[in-house]
Amino acid sequence: MLSVSQSQEQVAELVARAAKAGADAADALYSGGSATQVEVRLGALENVERSEGEEIGLRVFIGQRSATASTSDFTPASYDALVERVVAMAREAPEDPYAGMAPEDRLMRGPSPDLDLEDAQEISPAEMKERAMAAEDAARAVKGVTNSEGGGSSASRSVIALATSTGFVRGYAGTAHSLSASVLAGEGSGMQRDYAYSSVRHLSEMEDAEAVGRLAGERAVARLDPVRLPSGALPVVFDPRVSGGLLGHLIGAITGAAIARKTSFLLDALGTEIFGPGITIIDDPLRPRGLRSKPFDGEGLETHQTVIIDKGVLTGWLMTVAAARQLGLQPTGHAARGTGGAPGAGSSNLHMAPGALSPKELIADIERGFYVTELIGMGVNGLTGDYSRGAAGFLIEKGEITKPVAEVTVAGNLKHMFRTLVPANDLTFKHATNAPTIRLEGMTVAGD
User: Fold this and answer.
1) pTM of this structure
2) Taking Cα atoms as reference points, which of 233, 259, 260 lies closest to residue 446?
3) In what residue span(s) does the Metalloprotease TldD/E central domain sit (predicted)?
């Protein structure tokens, strides 16, 4: 895998070759990564895997025609063949009136922020095995756990570099560490599975292995002997394990491409109050050590913190250069891309600000409700906002979480769900998308 400086040299060279071959404009993206994964099961080493890969993608423009191709062969001959192929493809591609590079005056020019994404501390496979063993042992030690799907530990490093024919050449590197355990409780057809994991940029911030394993075991045992709920309307509360998914549905509905195609249930919602006045949702690509932090986006624009929902009001769309041109607006620095194809828009480190009530206070007045810890299936219509997903969790009775619940469906409409949801005060930053416990009113629970 190339270093950041080496990858910058390679993307700059490929863009220069494209210009010499007749491209009116071009950009190139390098993506490289290496990872080590150690898996254990029932106290024994099951697998050690090491993977490395790197690829460079070239996008060229001939007028308003464009094409993209990639290669993992970084030799001069391979570059010549790649450039010749992509330029020829672009000449035959259909015209797109919105295609093109990011405006030169919008490209990142200042110094890159120090996001502290790369951990200098390394971990050996032997140490990874020890952590995975400790997590699984702690999970299996929980009374009621009867089997294990295993424990795992991984460490990875990635490098990204982007160059454009307008003079942008930047790159950055990042590391990631993860630890997980997954176990089963009970016997026969009554067995239940659950898991726990921790993912961080720096190893020093990893959760304790025993704590991760113990949580996985306790979660599995708590799900034993589930009941079915009768169908009907109930207050529904989403645990932080699943509440972040609601933010993902929001992002899918406010990308510039969805608005331009008129395929979003929030098509006419810009500048309106789509959440309650106490709700704020922020995308922050500049969070130090954030799991999706990045100094520039997939088109070379400088990234910045965005308040997507400000006191309930939708402030704007997330747009690539092409979508912005189509909508007559400005790109927002949210372009995300791989080495093949055009950029799309997406979020980075996304979170909903916490509310005022504790989770206990949030459910205290619920006479009978459903506390959701797992969601199954996609079941969301991006055009209408209709929401229907399989779910498991726990019954809420007289303000207390009681019996486990399985094999039910929760349904509603995202417009109503957004407008009436209430967040608790237990926000933590453990994932790329984070939300506190969330209470939703008027949802339908379909069970027996």
Assistant:
1) 0.95
2) 233
3) 119-224
Kind and range of the H or E run holding 406: strand 400-413
Q: How far apart are the first and last CA of the chain?
A: 54
Going by their DSSP bridges, the two strands 350-352 and 344-345 should be labelled as unpaired
Number of residues that this document lists for the chain:
448
Please give the Cα distance from 127 to 418 (Å, whole number): 44
Residues 75, 31 contacting (CB under 8 angstroms):
no
Main-chain phi, psi angles of 125, to 5 degrees: -55, -35
Q: Distance between CA atoms of 34 and 65, rounded to whole angstroms?
A: 35
DSSP 433: E
3-state helix, strand, coil in the chain (%, to 5): 25, 40, 35
Residue 380's closest CA among 256, 225, 251, 196? 251
126 contact partners, CB below 8 Å, separation of at least 6? none
How many C-alpha atoms does 40 have within 13 Å on its Cβ side? Answer: 26
Q: Classify strands 25-41 and 44-62 as parallel, antiparallel or unpaired.
A: antiparallel
* Cβ atoms of 97 and 64 closer than 8 Å: yes
Instruction: Please provide the DSSP assignment of 206-268 as one string.
Output: PPPHHHHHHHHHHHHHHTSS-BPPPSEEEEEEE-HHHHHHHHHHHHHHSBHHHHHTT--TTTT
> Cβ–Cβ contacts within 10 Å for residue 298, how many?
24
Compute the distance between CA of residue 250 and CA of residue 13 in angstroms, rounded to an integer: 39
Greatest distance between any 2 Cα atoms in the chain: 73
| CA–CA dist 65, 94 (Å, integer) | 6
| Residue with token string 């919008």 | 106
The SS3 assignment for 65 reads strand
Q: How many CB atoms lie within 10 A of CB 43?
A: 11
Reading the chain (448 residues) residue by residue, the pLDDT tens digits are: 999 999 999 999 999 999 999 999 999 999 999 999 999 999 999 999 999 999 999 999 999 999 999 999 999 999 999 999 999 999 999 999 998 999 898 999 989 999 999 999 999 999 999 999 999 999 999 999 999 999 999 999 999 999 999 999 999 999 999 999 999 999 988 999 999 999 999 999 999 999 999 999 999 999 999 998 999 999 999 999 999 999 999 999 999 999 999 999 999 999 999 999 999 999 999 999 999 999 999 999 999 999 999 999 999 999 999 999 999 999 999 999 999 988 999 999 999 999 999 999 999 999 999 999 999 988 899 999 999 999 999 999 999 999 999 999 999 999 999 999 999 999 999 999 999 999 999 899 998 7
All domains of the chain in start order, with CATH? 4-36+47-106 (3.30.2290.10), 232-246+354-446 (no CATH)
